[in-house]
Every structure is written in C-alpha cells, then in structure tokens.
Amino acid sequence: MMPGERRMKHFYLIVNKEKENAEKGAEMIAEYLSRQGCECLWDQEPPDTSEYRYTDGRKVPQETECVIVLGGDGTLIQASRDLAGRNLPLFGVNMGHLGYLTQICCERDILTAMDDLLADRYRLEHRMMLQGRVISDGRTVAEDIALNDIILGRMGLHTLKYDLYVNGEFFNEYTADGMIMATPTGSTAYNLSAGGPIAAPESDLIIMTPICPHTLNSRSIVLSSENRIMLKVTGGEDREQFLSFDGDTVVKLRRGDRIEVERSEITTTLVQLSQVSFLENIRKKMKHI
C-alpha cells in the first residue's frame, strides 16, 4: 500500500463451510472488523451451485475493497474465477492442511493479520490468468478462465493423442495421459506433481507439462505469456477425454476438437502480508508434504 492511500473499510467474507472452524473464523473476523469501524459482510445462505461455482458475485457490494476467503487454495481459486473482472483484492485464510496461495493458516494469527490489513502493512500482487476455449466443428462450444491451470485429461484407460501448435506453427505430436497448461501460480499445483518446473508467481509465463508422455524426450515447455497455444485432439473416438479449468469446469472432447489457450486480459489480485521470499515460502511448504 502506498503512503497517503485511503485505508480499506469495506470487507466481504467468502467462507467454505466444509472446512473445520471456517465459520468460527468468519465470525471472529466480522466481529473484530466491526469493532474497528469497518463494514464486514458475508453470505450465510447455502450456495446455489447451479448458478455459480462457489461465490455469488451479485451479493458482493460494489463498495467492497477487500475479499477475505476462508477455506484453502481451492476456495481462493474459485473466488478468483467467480469474481473475475471485479478487480477485488483477495486475502486467503487457510483452514485446510497446505496452502500456497493463502496467507495465514493458524487461528491465532487471524486477528494479527486483520491489524496488518487495517494498518496498510501489505502489498498487492497481480497474478496472470489463462483464457481457454474449445472449438468443435468450427464453432466455440466452451470458454472459461483459470488462475491455476487448464488441463487436457482422460477419463478412460486409453492414452490420448494430440498435436501441439504454438502461434499457428506445428511443434510436436504427443501420446500421453494429457497436458497441463499452467500459470506461474499453478506451477506449484498439478504441474509440480507431474514433474513440471516451479515459476515465480509474478512471472508472465505459460508452462506446458505433458502428463505421463509415452516417450523419453518429452519435457515441460515454458513460453512467454504472449504466445498462443493450440492443441488438436487426434485420438480415436474410443478415447474418453476432457478439458478442465482449475479442476472445476469440465468439457468433454472428441476427435478433431481444437483447444485454444492464451493469456487472459483478466488478472487476480492477491493481498500479501509476508515479506518472506517466494523461494523461502516454497521451502517451508515442501517440508510439510
């Protein structure tokens, strides 16, 4: 926060009620912020997942200056997608076991973190997102965004076959269990488990990691975020395959479908309190895996 800027007064809570003590933490935050003269609202009704993923963005007031998310990385990712385009800073409180995106993970640290927010002891970090679409028979049949990754995956036992193009130029053909197209934020998620590289979160990169490729020379590819990626599904109709956005939106695919992925114009803004370096944070997280 730059000196002279107005302090935040309007907060909104997103609570994953499936996480133990998440509601208790929300009540603590709401009561504390109210005592400090702030407005803190949260939706306590069960979510209608038929209309939105996790957060009903229509209920988030326009004057909101910060969204506090209680849950885990998954809850924070869903919030980033549900509130895409609102330019609202997100602050994550981890109520799960391991979080790379959430800032604090202990109940005793919650009120200290609230003091830091109110005293402007934080910085805003902008994370790139991906935009993906599925084109079938010449028309777009699905389109969505992702903060972590867009994944071509399989549902059956057959391996997948697909061709990779970069900026319209053929690059390689693959026989594999799928392909991960990750942002730097998503580099520590499925991409990492599949043997892909870790990237600094503020980087502008697209990381492509094949999943269990049936060759000895297939490695991850790291591209500038200015590149446009296209995958063409070439496997037979007996292969059950899909495209997922942040593990949520799932689109079934068939032979001949094209998957186009590029950097989204929308970004996610995260509130960062800790001055610990990215590599130090990764080292600490890895000790608990």
Automatic annotation (TrEMBL):
Alphabetized UniProt keyword annotations: ATP-binding, Cytoplasm, Kinase, NAD, NADP, Nucleotide-binding, Transferase
Keyword Nucleotide-binding: yes
Cellular localization per UniProt: Cytoplasm
Organism: Clostridium symbiosum (strain WAL-14163)
Molecular function per GO: ATP binding; metal ion binding; NAD binding; NAD+ kinase activity
Superkingdom of the source species: Bacteria
Catalytic activity: NAD(+) + ATP = ADP + NADP(+) + H(+)
Name of the protein described by the UniProt record: NAD kinase
UniProt cross-references to Pfam families, sorted A to Z: NAD_kinase, NAD_kinase_C
Phylogenetic lineage: Bacteria, Bacillati, Bacillota, Clostridia, Lachnospirales
Catalytic residues in the record: D73
EC number assigned by the record: 2.7.1.23
Similarity field: Belongs to the NAD kinase family.
Binding site for NAD(+): D73, G74, N148, D149, D177, T188, A189, Y190, N191, L192, S193
Cofactors (names): a divalent metal cation
SUPFAM superfamilies with a match to the protein in the record: NAD kinase/diacylglycerol kinase-like
Metal-binding is among the record's keywords: no
